Amino acid sequence: MMNTWLRLSLEMLLEYLPQDMSEDKSRQKFSLIFTHAVNAAELAEKEDLSKDGQVAVSYVYHQIGFACDRFDMFEYSLELYTKALSIRKKHLGERHQYVATTSNNIGSLYERKCNYNEALKWYYTALEIDIENYGENNISTATTRNNIALAHNYKGEYDLALKMFFDVVNIFKAHSAPDYPNLSTLYSNIALAYDYKHDFDNALEWHMKSLEIKDSVFSEDELCKAVSYNGIAVAYNGKKDFDKSLEWHFKALSCREKIIGTDHTDIAATYNNIGSAYKAKREYNEALKWYFKALNIYEPKLGRVPLTATVINNIAGVYCLQEKYQDALEWYMKALSIIEETLGKSHPYAIALTTKNIPHVYTKLENAKQLFVIYKS
């Protein structure tokens, strides 16, 4: 049986854990108790506990992991989710719904690290358990299908993702009100797939549908609304309405900075998008400023992943437009190294770099050499 001091300590820690990043100073609050929370959970796990006691410890690990996840502490989050999963499998069984919940969360971690195949492995594990426990047409099952569709979307399998998204829409509509908040998230995901397909009219339509629900449910400064602002901005950028795009990007940035600060990966994504809008407006120095702001967050937080390579590729593209071809080549090669390492040489991204971007720069450099020789002669 868990001693009274340890039980009270864990209860207090759970009460104190910030689960909502919109809480004032929640990051500082979490950093103060993180180490103590983990130590308390580890002490509790070593106690001679009943099944219920061990399950309670798994819940503590899971909630600390969830908080780490919210604050971009990926490695800690994965470690804690794994601890929770091990206890849950041992004491609740492999097919318990808590196992599905933790598997879903681990999948989400891998997705954010751009390891989509690993994410899908965990999502499909969760889906099998959901179907066993709830059936094919339950909200929980549909939520996991949505996660799977997102991962397929990020892998570039847009038509498969859209089919799955619309299947989920039908399940959500059958079980919920028209202003159900999860429908707005799903509409944003559908819009994202259309963005990736360069179908910006459809993308804008679905982003607006999503925002309409959020406006009816949430206050002005909510992270979920920033997602819609950003999506609308991307769609306008695709439609080449760059001033409108920047207007919505800065609205997203203002909302996100109030809630999650200035060094979160979601902030970096907005910085990258702002850089792309300025690039499209041919304001190249301004574009580089925002791209480097994004890179300064992605590199230390995510390392060598496709998102980092995308920003590097964007920097190279600006240097190319500025006719700084040696700099462009250097940055394209950096991007290629990451893409080949993480996605493989046969991925469309790698092929585009090796058959289009990099040869273009070599051609420009060779032409410049020939012009120099002619000028000197």
Task: Describe it.
The chain is an all-alpha fold. Helices cover 82% and strands 0% of the residues. The model is unreliable at 371-377 (pLDDT under 50).
Return the string of H and E elements.
HHHHHHHHHHHHHHHHH
Relative helix content: over 70%
Number of helices: 17
Number of strands: 0
Weakly predicted, low-confidence segments: 371-377
> How large is the radius of gyration?
23 Å
Largest sheet: none
Spatial shape: globular
Distance between the termini: 91 Å
Mean pLDDT: 85
Structural class: mainly alpha
Strand content: under 5%
Structure, briefly:
It contains 17 helices and no strands.
Task: Write the topology of this structure.
Blueprint: H1 4-16, H2 26-46, H3 51-70, H4 74-92, H5 97-112, H6 116-134, H7 139-154, H8 158-175, H9 181-196, H10 200-217, H11 223-238, H12 242-260, H13 265-280, H14 284-302, H15 306-321, H16 325-342, H17 348-376
